[in-house]
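Board work, copied verbatim: Translation machinery-associated protein 16
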Amino acid sequence: MPRTLQKVHKQIAKKRGAVDALHEFSRDARRLRRAGARDDRLNRHTSAVLKARQPYMERIEYFHDAVQAIEEPLTDAGLAEVVNKCINRDAEEIAELQQERRKGRPPTRREEALKQRTQTEEKEFKTGFWMPDLGEEGALLKLKNWNGEWTALSSAKFIRLCQDGSKQESSFPPKGMS
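↓ predict structure ↓
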């Protein structure tokens, strides 16, 4: 039972004793239904928020793993190289899925999803790829010491890196082209 439903259940049980013997339209039964509906609504909202954050978390986790071996801040060319590696991180899996598929068969959902993500990230790189600033010592250190939590990223510095090499400061969490 989620938290608010537990609280309401406990309060009613304390007052009445057995919660099983409630009348269907009693105040306490309505209170329990409202608490259950509230918990369902909160769970749906939480899962939607986590699903929306997932692509950004995967991207930041990739950069977190990539910077563990880096000692110094990267130059603009180094940043572009890391972004290209990030965009093409699934190339091996896509090729493997294509080889496993019989001739004339449509691609699997996983293969289509990976290709679509790669295409989306390539388009984003042309206009401004959202990423942690790996060209600054402090931001690099914060990313190396990141604990994996979404809220811990609010103090990190982010940029939008274009394919032509221009950098633009960005906000966290990303909003449009900020």
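The first helix runs from residue 3 to 16.
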